[in-house]
């Protein structure tokens, strides 16, 4: 079985570990790019959301690389994501590809386990348990490294230092194959991160909320986080993480589920119904941003996204009430980097001006960030 | 909530948009029975769409823009806005939903528009009698005693059924709604009358088909071209059963209904072609259309065309496509 799965940020590292630990082969397509997006858009329905198009491009690339099984999560949610797998596989079959579908969802769990059992063979339970442990450890380590890099990036003295380190440590982590090794690699990276020289000067912090894929996949958001860090000295933190996306549905880290529950409670006055996307995290993220020390909010969404467009109608008024600067970024295949840069810079100027004024007036809830980074890495809801 | 400020009865306004095309007759009957005055906003016009688009985010589907426009139109004359919020509208073992935009319609109005009268919602969300549950929730909000609400519900239920019967008999959805609300006779509204040439089945959400302005008067136009018209509204509320092909498991109830009517209509002997009407940027339809085409839900071989409604496009291009389609069907019929 040569299993392939679409990309999302660095999710491929733990997923690959999971598949390989089961003794199967993982086919990892090249990172999403304008090319794979174009490939996907060619065959996708016109009005479908952006993640569909990119992941379709990934699937095509993986099939070209010789994958014989495509894995995708599925479910009967209110949003489109649950039907991605089914529709994409229909399209791919009509294009003439032959492959096995592995649609992983609550309704199909028995079927999926059956398939795995046949592919893995004797002792599959033990292997699966081991693989899941490894998967969780890697996901956690990736998450931590990403977070540290995100904190250091806007403050680094030499542009690109954090990312170079992130890249080497991620590839080392990818090669690690035991829990002990993972722990060691993570520890090494941690010390290395803390040794990166930093520069002086204020840094604004913004929270990024919005649709999962656009938040986490640099190819879709045109490297939003790096752009903000390098060009504007803004630390941008997504409310969602790959770690959360991977582990939330399988209950491997109950903390995440609790967090989600709280977010729903917070969002209830605004959106009492479950809309199937990340709308609760968006609303809760906006509501708690001030208290958690953010200076602004960026709302990122793909063009025709349903839940996030609903949030988009609600957020402007809410942010005004919260006195929180808001920037809405809508991404599609045609978004241009130049236009994005201009908007980000204008937003960063606004934040800095506001921040300067606030500190002069001595308002307590905005703090000027001079403390060394990576202090707050234990904070969970950020 | 006491909103009468001296007048006889409080006025409750229902924007003619989205799920109102399903529940407005029911709600009007319920409210009137409870001693309120219920008004449904007038049919959509271009100025309503314009106002709606101006006050709403750009890239949302035209149906939501109509909702915003209609709500603004009602703003001054009413004490309360009532918007249905359908969530779980059918009985199935798994969770079912409707489009997220329908499920969040009251929220979008409440937090997205300023200076609006308070927005109440009619929540349809499962239970043994979803409509009764919704009514009781509404009654609590409006301070109607439960016994009175129950009696009103019984009457309203009959009114709702009457409306669905009209739709099922093939009356033009706009006229059916009009006559169900104001009690008129739906004269000459029968779309399926006669043995026109050809017969076209139109599939789409009632809030698109029933909205003359948004759908560029599609149904009348087809009649004008000499076609006999069947619509997916004819399967309104029939709820599954004897569908000839397996329908993919969909959690969107209304889309499932459309898929089912597509399966049934395309297998009727008298249907020559199918038109699927969707709005620009519609979320569920973008995937459901793929499934309809690729899973053989629409009988392979039946001509199938998709029409996209957009508030920016004028009717002329739309009508040209329509004429071409009808001509094609006619030629196909002759050649047999
Ligand atoms: S959340 Fe938005 S982008 Fe994601 S599947 Fe739903 S509509 Fe598409
Ligand atoms: S189903 Fe489509 S047209 Fe209807 S509200 Fe949802 S997105 Fe808009």
What report would you give on this structure?
The complex is a heterodimer of chains A (382) and B (336). With 382 residues, chain A is an alpha/beta fold. Chain A has three domains: 2-121, Rossmann fold (3-Layer(aba) Sandwich), CATH 3.40.50; 135-200; 202-382, 3-Layer(aba) Sandwich (Rossmann fold). Chain A has 15 helices and eight strands. In chain A, the strands form two sheets. Chain A has a four-stranded parallel β-sheet with strand order 2-1-3-4. A four-stranded parallel β-sheet of chain A has the order 6-5-7-8, with helices on both faces. In chain A, helix 6 (124-152) runs parallel beside helix 8 and helix 7 (161-175) packs antiparallel against helix 8. The relative contact order of chain A is 0.12. By secondary structure, chain B is of the alpha/beta class. Chain B is 45% helix and 14% strand. Chain B has helices at residues 20-33, 46-55, 62-74, 100-103, 105-112, 130-142, 146-168, 173-182, 206-209, 218-224, 253-266, 283-294, 315-334, and strands spanning 11-14, 37-40, 80-88, 119-125, 199-203, 228-231, 273-279, 304-309. Chain B has a four-stranded parallel β-sheet. Chain B starts with 10 loop residues before the first strand and ends with a helix. The chains are: A alpha/beta (382), B alpha/beta (336). The A-B interface holds A 45-49, 76-80, 82-83, 86-87, 90-91, 94, 107, 270-273, 275-277, 303-307, 309-310, 312-314, 317-318, 330 and B 56-57, 59-60, 85, 87, 94-101, 103-104, 107-108, 111-112, 114, 248-252, 280-287, 289-291, 294-295. The site of one iron/sulfur cluster has 12 residues of chain A, from helix 14.
List the helices and strands and how they pair.
The complex is a heterodimer of chains A (382) and B (336).
Chain A: E1 2-4, H1 12-21, E2 25-27, H2 34-43, H3 50-64, E3 69-73, H4 84-94, E4 100-104, H5 109-120, H6 124-152, H7 161-175, H8 179-194, E5 204-210, H9 212-216, H10 224-232, E6 234-238, H11 242-247, H12 254-267, H13 279-289, E7 296-302, H14 306-322, E8 326-331, H15 337-361
Parallel strand pairs in A: 1-2, 1-3, 3-4, 5-6, 5-7, 7-8
Chain B: E1 11-14, H1 20-33, E2 37-40, H2 46-55, H3 62-74, E3 80-88, H4 100-103, H5 105-112, E4 119-125, H6 130-142, H7 146-168, H8 173-182, E5 199-203, H9 206-209, H10 218-224, E6 228-231, H11 253-266, E7 273-279, H12 283-294, E8 304-309, H13 315-334
Parallel strand pairs in B: 1-2, 1-3, 3-4, 5-6, 5-7, 7-8
Helix pairs in contact in B: 1-7, 2-3, 6-7, 7-8, 11-12
One iron/sulfur cluster binds at residues 61, 63-64, 99, 101-102, 205, 279, 282-285 of chain B.
């Amino acid at each position: 079985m040569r299993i392939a799965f679409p990309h999302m940020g660095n999710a491929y590292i733990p997923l690959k570990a999971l598949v390989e630990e089961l003794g199967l082969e993982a086919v990892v397509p090249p990172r999403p790019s304008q090319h794979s997006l174009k490939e996907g858009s060619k065959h996708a329905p016109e009005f479908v959301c952006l993640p569909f198009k990119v992941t379709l491009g990934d699937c095509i690339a993986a099939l070209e690389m010789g994958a014989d099984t495509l894995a995708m999560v599925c479910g009967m949610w209110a949003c489109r994501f649950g039907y991605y797998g089914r529709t994409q596989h229909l399209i791919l079959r009509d294009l003439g590809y032959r492959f096995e579908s592995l649609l992983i969802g609550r309704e199909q769990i028995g079927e999926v386990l059956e398939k795995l059992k046949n592919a893995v063979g004797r002792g599959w339970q033990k292997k699966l348990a081991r693989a899941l442990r490894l998967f969780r450890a890697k996901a956690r380590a990736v998450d931590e490294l990403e977070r540290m890099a995100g904190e250091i990036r806007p403050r680094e003295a030499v542009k690109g230092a954090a990312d170079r380190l992130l890249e080497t440590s991620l590839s080392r982590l990818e090669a690690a194959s035991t829990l002990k090794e993972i722990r060691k690699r993570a520890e090494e990276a941690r010390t290395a991160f803390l040794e990166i020289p930093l520069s002086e000067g204020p840094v604004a912090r913004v929270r990024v909320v919005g649709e999962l894929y656009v938040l986490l996949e640099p190819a879709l958001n045109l490297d939003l986080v790096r752009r903000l860090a390098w060009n504007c000295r803004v630390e941008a933190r997504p409310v969602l993480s790959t770690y959360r996306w991977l582990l939330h549905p399988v209950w491997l880290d109950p903390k995440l589920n609790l967090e989600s529950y709280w977010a729903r409670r917070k969002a209830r006055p605004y959106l009492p119904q479950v809309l199937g996307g990340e709308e609760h995290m968006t609303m809760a993220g906006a509501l708690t941003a001030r208290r958690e020390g953010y200076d602004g909010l960026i709302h990122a969404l793909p063009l025709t996204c349903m839940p996030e467009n609903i949030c988009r109608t609600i957020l402007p008024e809410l942010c005004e009430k919260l006195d929180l600067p808001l920037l809405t970024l809508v991404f599609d295949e045609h978004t241009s980097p130049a236009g994005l840069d201009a908007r980000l810079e204008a937003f960063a100027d606004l934040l800095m001006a506001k921040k300067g004024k606030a500190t002069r007036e001595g308002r307590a809830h905005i703090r000027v960030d001079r403390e060394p980074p990576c202090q707050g890495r234990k904070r969970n809801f950020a | 909530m006491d909103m009468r400020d001296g007048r006889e009865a409080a006025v409750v306004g229902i924007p003619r948009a989205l799920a109102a095309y399903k529940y407005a007759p029911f709600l009007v009957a319920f409210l009137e029975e409870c001693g309120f005055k219920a008004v449904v906003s007038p049919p959509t016009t271009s100025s309503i769409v314009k106002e709606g688009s101006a006050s709403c985010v750009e890239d949302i589907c035209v149906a939501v823009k109509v909702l915003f426009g209609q709500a603004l139109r009602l703003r001054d004359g009413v004490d309360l806005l009532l918007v249905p919020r359908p969530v779980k509208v059918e009985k199935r073992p798994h969770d079912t939903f409707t489009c997220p935009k329908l499920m969040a319609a009251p929220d979008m109005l409440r937090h997205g528009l300023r200076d609006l009268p308070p927005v109440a919602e009619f929540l349809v969300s499962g239970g043994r009698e979803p409509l009764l549950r919704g009514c009781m929730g509404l009654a609590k909000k409006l301070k109607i005693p439960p016994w009175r609400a129950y009696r009103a519900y019984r009457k309203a239920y009959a009114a709702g059924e009457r409306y669905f019967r009209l739709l099922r008999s093939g009356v033009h959805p706009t006229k059916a709604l009009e006559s169900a609300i104001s009690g008129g006779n739906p004269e000459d509204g029968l779309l399926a009358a006669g043995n026109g040439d050809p017969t076209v089945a139109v599939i789409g959400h009632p809030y698109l088909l029933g909205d003359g302005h948004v759908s560029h008067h599609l149904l009348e136009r087809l009649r004008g071209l000499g076609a006999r018209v069947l619509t997916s509204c004819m399967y309104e509320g029939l709820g599954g059963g004897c569908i000839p092909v397996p329908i993919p498991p969909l959690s969107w109830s209304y889309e499932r209904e459309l898929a089912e009517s597509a399966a049934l209509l395309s297998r009727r002997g008298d249907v020559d072609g199918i038109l699927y009407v969707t709005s620009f940027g519609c979320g569920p339809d973008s995937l459901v259309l793929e499934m309809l085409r690729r899973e053989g839900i629409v009988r392979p071989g039946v001509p199938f065309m998709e029409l996209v409604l957009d508030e920016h496009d004028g009717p002329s291009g739309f009508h040209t496509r329509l004429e071409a389609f009808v001509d094609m069907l006619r030629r196909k019929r002759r050649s047999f």
